[in-house]
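Case 437 in the screening queue. Each case pairs one protein sequence with one candidate compound; here the compound is histidyl-adenosine monophosphate. For every case the pipeline is the same: read the inputs, emit a complex structure as tokens, and attach any notable structural observations.

Predict complex for case 437.
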Amino acid sequence: MSKLKYQTLTGMHDVLPEDQVYFKRIQKAVESVSNYYSFEKIETPILEIAEVFQKAVGDDTDIVGKEMYTFRTKGGDIVSLRPEGTAAVMRSYLEHGMHNLPQPVKLWYIGPFFRYERPQAGRFRQFHQFGFEAIGEQNPSIDSQIIQMSYGVLKELGFKNLTIEVNSIGDSECRPYFKKILASYFKSRKSSLCQDCQRRLKENPLRILDCKEEKCQTVKAGAPQIIDHLCENCHSHFKQVLEFLDELQLPYVLNPYLVRGLDYYTKTVFEIISVQGGPASGGETAENSQSVGTLIGGGRYDNLAKTLGGRDTAGCGSAAGIERIANLMKAREMKTGPKQEDAKIFLAQLGQLAKRKSMKLFEEFREAKIPVAESFSKDSLKTQLRNANKLGIKWVLIFGQKEALEDFITLRDMDTGTQKEIKLDKVVAEMKAKIKK
Ligand code: HAM
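Case 437 output:
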């Protein structure tokens, strides 16, 4: 077959009906965790002034430097499709004077994000994230709560063998000094670094620690670790975060090379990955599972508010890639929970008057919150019964010509083939009682 002229853009995809069940399940888990921890929902626009992300995430980062969809509007503003949520949520916090509310202000969000990335497994140009942000509190208990919640959502979805990698990348007091130590270490080994890292050496030597290139691994392995160079304040903060994580019995490991690809982070950073190779994983190898990348990433961002021109305000949060989670759930055939909407009743009709009356009856069922399946576009009773059969539905209500004229309906039990007549004004109540049994 020749290729269709119009297809989705590279890196973009339709979320088809068969995948909605995963998205729905994930959103439900996020909502339930958010409610429990008293996080409230926020929605920010998909477009923001480009500077919000340039300042917050950093001009030198891949996200801003290479991946933002940025353009000039008819009015002359330079705007970007949001590549992430934290900068926009902080912009909103500052714009709406949320510092006047009891702190921390705890917010969650879900929606589409855009990054012009090189297409590869687990990386899309339009993808969905959910995220948590707790703004206005420095206390390390918040960091551990964000980690716990992020972990909690994945647990609730049925993920096993999750690993939480944590690190502290210091703050404006200790990081500049560490960057110098790191730069001098890498400078003397410059020729052993990949092209990108040679550039990173000038811009931000911390980014080299994040490099996945084979070439850089040996040099990285001998690099000084920031954990040994934290100032008093960052050291004590990190120690407390780890104590909370211990108390919560969360499966974390220290990763001294975890730096994250966004400039706004201070102190705690973390990522959650799922490595699963056992029989319960649906046969997936650890390697395959790794290839989708990190499921959730986050950390503390105590300087972000000031960078955006606001007052000094601490913050901590995380965000997750919904496609990555959904694709793993699908590959591993993980449960999506009972489909609440599954109909137990099928409404079949025969003839024009019956069809009209069936549509009305269908609305009565909807008001009573009883799910009912139908094939109103089909005229043949045989086709409709076949559809009911395919759906595995036990109760079929048949609205024929005689029924429509005499205001009753025939109920057929598909398991036994037995039939009975029910008065039209009694049918909703009677069926309600039947499906409750
Ligand atoms: P991030 O690490 O850039 O952090 O993204 C978070 C998660 O979004 C990733 O772990 C991944 O699952 C998913 N993700 C990112 N890019 C893509 C992509 N191109 N395709 C599919 N999934 C993707 C942030 O965005 C921060 N705002 C997180 C945060 C919130 N930090 C503090 N608060």
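Case 437 observations:
- The chain has two domains: 17-174+230-331, 345-436.
- The first strand starts at residue 40 and ends at 41.
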